[in-house]
Amino acid sequence: MGMITLTSDLGYKDFYLAAVKGSIVTQLPNTQIIDISHSVAPFNIAQGAFLFRNAFPHFPRRTVHILGVNCDYSNNPEFLALAYREHYLLGPDNGIFSLICEEFPEKLVKINLNRETKFPHFALLDVLVPCACHLAAGGTLNTLGDDQKTWIQKMDLKPVMGPGFIRGTVIYIDEYQNVITNITRKHFEERIKGRFEIRFKRNETINKISYHYGEVPEGEKLSLFGISEHLEIAINKGKASGLLGLRMDDTIQIDYEEVS
Amino acid sequence: MGMITLTSDLGYKDFYLAAVKGSIVTQLPNTQIIDISHSVAPFNIAQGAFLFRNAFPHFPRRTVHILGVNCDYSNNPEFLALAYREHYLLGPDNGIFSLICEEFPEKLVKINLNRETKFPHFALLDVLVPCACHLAAGGTLNTLGDDQKTWIQKMDLKPVMGPGFIRGTVIYIDEYQNVITNITRKHFEERIKGRFEIRFKRNETINKISYHYGEVPEGEKLSLFGISEHLEIAINKGKASGLLGLRMDDTIQIDYEEVS
Amino acid sequence: MGMITLTSDLGYKDFYLAAVKGSIVTQLPNTQIIDISHSVAPFNIAQGAFLFRNAFPHFPRRTVHILGVNCDYSNNPEFLALAYREHYLLGPDNGIFSLICEEFPEKLVKINLNRETKFPHFALLDVLVPCACHLAAGGTLNTLGDDQKTWIQKMDLKPVMGPGFIRGTVIYIDEYQNVITNITRKHFEERIKGRFEIRFKRNETINKISYHYGEVPEGEKLSLFGISEHLEIAINKGKASGLLGLRMDDTIQIDYEEVS
């Protein structure tokens, strides 16, 4: 039984996602289909990449992953299939893969299937599903197209590093309203050896990294490295985004003592 | 392994849907269950029919589909099982099937199972799940009840056709806020051979049918036939419903040049 | 093929739930995973217990159920595994099991696995998933830890009973906006033999228990025992919570004639 995961901006209420799943089980009966998320903000490849990057390593090797974020013919006339860290990834060549992959994939092909343009706006169904079923059934990437050395490159918004400061940005707010920044544990640990102060709007400051949400009293703010290994501003048993007024794209700055 | 799909107004947060799925796997272990949508607006059979009609053809033949929209004993004392285009459909006799099926089904039976009224408000579980499992296990419609020649008939809201105009209605707004009307490609192509103008609120007009969302600049409005083959008003990478103020049941009129 | 259900406050949009599912299928391929609900309000074990209690009896015996509500190391350093009514239940020792189980479980062990603290905030993944896969694969509770005679005890909010009255509380509002109270059919039938009046805010009263939503005209309020066997205030084809102004934790009082 093959396994296919789906990550998209299709949402859950419409018939589009069901059409995709129906096509998969028609083409490859008994496939196990697992949703990663379909609540990616429409067309937001950075958000789709963030969610996918943190989810896919938990799946078995050789799982086939369809990435259907900002996926239509008009914007992205090309579709790619990748072998990356022993997983298969399929999606439009719109830059999402450059945001997901830390190194160039083991193999990258440009999909060269005879495209039935039955649904001109639904490449996810017309192009990606047949390729995913082919791979999930044990087929090879070579059958899908020719090797490729390049893809569309998008840059992740990186934190700005300066003398004694790291200035990051809010990149995601989760269901608990934890506020996730683009500052990773690696950024932090490479630079910060002594005292520091995390500053964000309304003159709020935190000068400690917690290990658990429960380390501070209920209702108190804290900062920790979340499951994604990104720096997170949270409130123990509370909703940090709403209560602290922190929104997507807001700035978080860490000022630190430089140790020579 | 049998396959059963579910379309309902049950939503995702309560325990009702889980009770349905648990009952299915208790009665027929290893059934593959696929959700079509459970976000149908409560009791809205027209919306349920629209979503289902566009999703089910993508599933394998002989799939069993449960339709649990506006489904309770009090309103719909009868339940139907259908063979339609080589799929099995099960649901209350509340008019939803007349909105789904373009022709009368191959076979239609009134469900005549000994109904355990354990949950007087949960016919979906008590009546439809056992019948669905029976069919998914290879059982026949004849076992479920007697042939029937009629059902409750509901009329879809059709566009009004007049000399030089088609006046349609917004019937669905999808997750991208694309605005879907009840004007189909067939309605359009049968009548419109020359110039036309699509008009809707705030004096907005469009006089072209696009093939792709990306044919116009980002943020611009456009019109196209969507995956459902219905005329859709959209904004490239934008939210048409909110930005254009188009809501459910609003009017869209196409004025066209009559070619003799 | 094993079966595992998931009940949590993780929500659907983040990558956390996908990480859990990926871990399950990595550790026990071909497991059937069924979501009970992930829309439990964050940290709300009473709501999680209510939803789970009503859903799990519909699943096959020996199903493994993971309860991931308010589940992190810091607050709940202990994790339990139970055999209860021939189902397996796994979750943090935070009181949720005392709210679910009507009698003490057949067997209760404190989980004693070597905990990899890879994700200090994600015990659901690190601790509960491996134990669930062990049980779903046919393993025993004895392997997971030592027998235990106690757990953290939480009290459900019970209705107040007085001479001629039962005073209950709104404990859940479902997707249809039916208003569910903590007054059960048992509470009602044990005490009320004659006339009664259900009273709630804005001087609304109901003095009849309906069997079906459709027993009153559309738009009219009614009261019935819902699928959970709890007293429910509803509006036929309408949204009782919004229209009647009934919210979580509001009071519903039944005044009744005492029959001697």
- Oligomeric organization of the protein chains: homotrimer
Helical run tally of chain A: 7
Low-confidence stretches of chain A: none
Largest chain interface and its two residue counts?
A: A-B, 30 and 35 residues
Helix- and strand-based class of chain A? Answer: alpha+beta
- Helix coverage percent of residues of chain A? 10-25%
Distance between the termini of chain A: 57 Å
Major beta-sheet overview of chain A: 8 strands, antiparallel
**String of helices and strands of chain A:** EHEHEEEHEHHEEEEHEEEEHE
Strands of chain A, count:
15
Approximate strand percentage of chain A: 25-35%
Question: Overview of this structure, please?
Answer:
With 260 residues, chain A is α+β, with helices and mostly antiparallel strands. Helices cover 22% and strands 31% of the residues of chain A. Chain A has 7 helices and 15 strands. The first copy, chain A, has helices at residues 16-27, 45-55, 96-100, 123-136, 141-144, 185-191, 240-244, and strands at residues 3-8, 32-37, 64-68, 79-84, 87-92, 107-111, 145-147, 160-162, 165-173, 179-184, 196-200, 204-206, 221-225, 230-235, 251-256. In chain A, strands 8, 9, 10, 11, 12, 13, 14 and 15 form an 8-stranded antiparallel sheet that branches. The first copy, chain A, has a 7-stranded mixed sheet with strand order 2-1-3-5-4-6-7. In chain A, helix 1 (16-27) packs parallel to helix 4 (123-136). Chain A is elongated. The A-B interface holds A 9-16, 18-23, 25-26, 29-30, 33, 42-43, 72-75, 119-122, 125 and B 1, 3, 5, 12, 32, 34-37, 39, 50-52, 54-60, 63, 174-176, 211-215, 224, 226-228, 237, 239.
